[in-house]
Write a structure and sequence with these properties.
Radius of gyration: 13 Å
Distance between the termini: 19 Å
Shape: globular
Oligomer: single chain
Largest sheet: 4 strands, antiparallel
Structural class: alpha+beta
Number of helices: 4
Number of domains: 1
Helix content: 25-40%
Strand content: 25-35%
Low-confidence stretches: none
Length: 135
């Protein structure tokens, strides 16, 4: 099974406050978000696939910070970008504009693994460039 680093591209329809596990309540403005994670466990990219299932309402269990965001009815998971066989999670996240302090990075020294940008085209370009620069 393929493994690597992935970035989920999310759209939030309206401003919301979401209870995000141990982070507590986090305010999110409507717009575009990118969450970067790694898929090096036994299932590889099945972790990213699991996020898609949670966003589609096919799963309920929340394990990671991003699961709380994905489970909100005003969030749509649009797509993801993957870099195969490269553990570049922190390198990718550090190249993007942080959106929520401490989000998704409880096991590293990064500011956040959740990023934001003004629109879909800008965020998609930034994410693809971040993945390309670290491959």
């Amino acid at each position: 099974m393929a493994a690597g680093t992935y970035t989920l591209l999310l759209e939030l329809d309206r401003d919301v406050t979401i209870e995000v596990g141990a982070l507590g309540p986090v305010d999110f403005e409507s717009g575009w978000y990118a969450y970067t994670g790694s898929a090096f466990g036994p299932g590889g990219f099945s972790r990213a696939d699991r996020h898609h299932e949670l966003a589609a309402g096919e799963r309920e269990t929340r394990h990671w910070h991003v699961d709380y965001l994905l489970g909100h009815p005003d969030v749509t998971l649009r797509t993801d970008v993957r870099t195969v066989d490269a553990d570049v999670e922190c390198a990718v996240a550090s190249r993007l504009e942080p959106a929520a302090p401490g989000f998704g990075c409880s096991d590293c020294d990064c500011d956040s693994h959740l990023a934001t940008a003004s629109d879909r085209v800008e965020l998609t370009a930034q994410v693809r460039q971040a993945h390309d620069c670290v491959e």
